[in-house]
Each structure stands twice: as C-alpha cells, then as structure tokens.
Amino acid sequence: MRFDAVAFDLDGTLYPAPRLYARALPTMIGKLRGVVAFNRTRQRMRAMGLTADHSAAAPADGAAFQALEARLFAGLLGSGLPEATAIMHRDFYRGVEELFLRIKPFTGLTAALDALSAAGLRLGLLSDLPPLRKLELMGLSGRFEVALCSEDSGFLKPAREPFAMLASRMQLPPGRILYVGNNPRIDVAGAKAAGMSTAIVSRRRVHAADLSFFDWRELVTFAQRT
Question: Of 92, 108, 125, 174, whose CB has the highest number of CB atoms within 10 Å?
C-alpha cells in the first residue's frame, strides 16, 4: 500500500460541525465578546507559526503555548491575566469538551476506521484543541494509537511543526501518512507542507487535496491504493 497510516483532524472532520454549533450557540450568545477575542487570539497564534523566524520565539511546549495564548487573550479581552485564563479554560477548553456528550460522529466513520485498521493501516489523530475527552464522549476512545493536540508542539496548524510531531510520534516518514481534515487552508496546506498526502471531507472537489470525499468508503478505498 502507498500509506502506512491515516491520521485525522477532529473538529468538523470526525463529526458534522453544525451539530456542535447548534449545541454551543445557547451558551455562547452571552459570551460573544469572549468568543471574538478567543478567535482573534487563535488567528494571531496561527499567523505566528507561519512567519519566517517563528521558531526563535516559539513556545517550547503545550504549557508555554497556553500561557502565551492566555496573555494574548487577556490583552484582546481587556482583562487581567488570571481572569482571562479562567475564562479561556472554562469556556473554550473544558466547557466545549462537555458539549460532545451528544455529538455523534459522521455516519460511516466508525465503519471506515474499522476497515482501515483491518487493512493494516495505523490510525492517528492531530487536533488543534485537546482531543482525549472529546473522543471519549463520542465513543471513539482507543481508536487511535496516537491522539495529539497541536498545541503540544508549540504551534497551531497549518504550521509544519504539529504535523512533524505527529509523524515523529508515529515513527513514520510524513510521506507514508495520509492526513484527513476539513479545512483547505489549515489541514490540507499544513499537512502538504510537512510532506503528507491529504484528503478532505467535502461535498465539493477541493483541488488542493489528493482526495475530496463525503462517503467514508471512498476514503477507505483511496487509502488502500498502491
């Protein structure tokens, strides 16, 4: 086979994103200012990972990443650092995770994971937010031999570092990994820059990806091609 492993993004890739939006909307309406500030913080963090000299000032690990994220968030929110840190973790880390109790994976996903494993392909996961609790609540715990948060590399996708971390943890050359996401600018661009092949969950053809699919059986077939 062309690939030794198939790795996945989580949010919007393993489940339909509108389901989460519908669950989150009632709790986020009163927190709009924080939502805007957190989204702007993440945009800045992504941009920092794409600058030519980004490695020099990069956070060393996930803890340092979240410390920098909290400082940026506090500045955009106009609050003190302790308050901003508490809001960030309450509303955008732990709070969002618990919404996954009623989030179901895409139809056909679990069958596809079973088929990929049965074909001898190893499974991995790389998300921009901590994945383990979400996987547990969706009934997907234990499906992935490696399940990483890109923050742990000190960067967010589409920087190359999170994908390099994934390849390193799986002990595979990037070219032997097929990465599956839902965002061309973040998932596809980042994985390709790191040397991986890419697939995207989309009803429309995305020319930047090696495969665009919405029927999970298509992914299984593509991953097993020689």
Answer: 125
